[in-house]
Specification:
By secondary structure, this protein is of the alpha/beta class. The chain has one domain: 3-Layer(aba) Sandwich (Rossmann fold), CATH 3.40.50.1580. The chain is about 35% helix and about 30% strand. Strands 5-9-8-6-10 form a five-stranded mixed barrel, surrounded by four helices. Helix 2 packs parallel to helix 6 and helix 4 packs across helix 7. The longest helix has 24 residues. The radius of gyration is 17 Å and the shape is globular. It starts with 14 loop residues before the first strand and ends with a helix.
């Protein structure tokens, strides 16, 4: 047990999917896993462990932003001996060339966040995915005939900003979309020599303000989750 996760040792699988929203984790566990058990509900950040096609997997909530996912992923890696974390989330597209519902497999996360520097002394403003999970996701998507775009993304510390347009860091490095967590996840995995990947669904296009409806969000995020779960199976078999 930790201050943030109340699961007992052995309750967390070696591969974890992290959604930002605890209710998203609940939906996935109840609709896509078998033999599901709620193993932690501290702070209403639900964690469920079950099986998918016979493979053990834990689904949990990361909260929003680098500090939050930084805490949860670090504790999962260090206190529960997790080998691999795949973030499954949504992102806003920076320009109209990236379409609503598009799936992104983040190869690199750029960020202004001080998280990696303050935690581990990593001074760069970008971090790669960690380990083979990223490539497994690409290969699994091809087998499932799911179009997935491998691209650089922007992990921002802010959701609202006064300046309009694409932030300079994102524009200079051709980031296709923005989210808030991947950079810290990749930092933890790099420091601890663990696997980490991030799959994103484009839920809105910032320039046009086009957004998914509630029903569209449900269906499209289920597609992303299925890709993540099939990748879990492939990782476990390798």
């Amino acid at each position: 047990m930790t201050a943030h996760i109340s699961a007992q040792q052995g309750d967390i699988a070696r591969i974890v999917l992290l959604a930002g929203d605890p209710l998203r984790a609940k939906h996935i566990a109840e609709n896509m896993l078998q033999d599901v058990k709620l193993v932690s509900s501290t702070r209403n950040a639900f964690y469920y462990t079950g099986t998918y096609k016979g493979v053990a997997v834990t689904i949990g909530a990361s909260g929003m932003g680098c500090p939050s996912i930084g805490i949860y992923s670090y504790e999962l890696y260090t206190e529960y001996e997790v080998d691999c974390i795949i973030r499954i989330g949504t992102a806003g597209a920076y320009d109209v060339s990236t379409k609503l519902y598009e799936l992104i497999n983040a190869d690199m996360a750029f960020s202004e966040s001080t998280y990696a520097r303050e935690a581990f002394g990593f001074t760069e403003d970008h971090l790669l995915h960690q380990g083979r999970a990223y490539q497994v996701i690409n290969e699994t998507a091809e087998k499932l005939n799911l179009p997935v775009r491998a691209a650089s993304i922007h992990s921002s510390d802010v959701f609202y900003r006064s300046a309009e347009g694409i932030p300079p860091l994102a524009a200079d490095n051709h980031c296709v979309c923005v989210e808030m967590e991947a950079f810290a996840l990749f930092a933890n995995a790099k420091y601890l020599n663990k696997m980490a990947a991030t799959i994103l669904t484009i839920s809105d296009v910032i320039p046009t303000r086009e957004k998914m409806s509630a029903d569209q969000r449900q269906n499209s995020l289920d597609t992303m989750t299925r890709l993540a779960l099939e990748s879990v199976v492939a990782i476990s078999e390798a």
